[in-house]
Amino acid sequence: MNRNEAHALVDAYVRRVSARAGAELIILDERTIEREFGWVFFYASKRHVETGDPAFSVGGNAPMIVDRVTGELHVTGTAYPVEHYIAEYEARSRTH
């Protein structure tokens, strides 16, 4: 899987979440992290990105990991910094 394919997978997920949230959500391409295992994508409310107004921010928008080998999408969490979830994923990937 390449980055464009991974982006399309995340975009489809974000569109589904947008419909449920009642807000237009967008991928924050400039924040995407690439690692050996794949990519970590972030997303947010388009209105929050455009205005910076916290009233338009969304909760629960956890970063998503896309595995470049399997093409699987893994939603992380929001309780810890993203580095925590990346380290967990890397450790889990090494044991499988």
Could you say which structural class the secondary elements and strand pairing correspond to? alpha+beta
Tell me the β content. Answer: 15-25%
Overall mean pLDDT stands at 93
Order of helices and strands: HEEEEHEEH
Morphology call = globular
Distance between the termini: 19 Å
Largest sheet: 4 strands, antiparallel
Number of helices: 3
Strand order of the largest sheet: 2-3-5-6
Protein name: Immunity protein 35 domain-containing protein
InterPro entries: Imm35
Domain Immunity protein: 5-85
Describe this structure in words.
The chain is α+β, with helices and mostly antiparallel strands and 96 residues long. The chain has one domain (3-95). The protein has helices at residues 3-21, 46-51, 82-95, and strands at residues 25-27, 33-35, 38-41, 43-45, 64-67, 73-75. The strands form two sheets. Strands 2-3-5-6 form a four-stranded antiparallel β-sheet, with helices on one face. It is globular and about 40 Å long. The model has no long low-confidence stretch (mean pLDDT 93).
Briefly, what is this?
InterPro entries: Imm35. This protein is an alpha+beta fold and 96 residues long. It has three helices and six strands, in the order αββββαββα.
Could you outline the blueprint of secondary structure elements for this entry?
Layout: H1 3-21, E1 25-27, E2 33-35, E3 38-41, E4 43-45, H2 46-51, E5 64-67, E6 73-75, H3 82-95
Antiparallel strand pairs: 1-4, 2-3, 3-5, 5-6
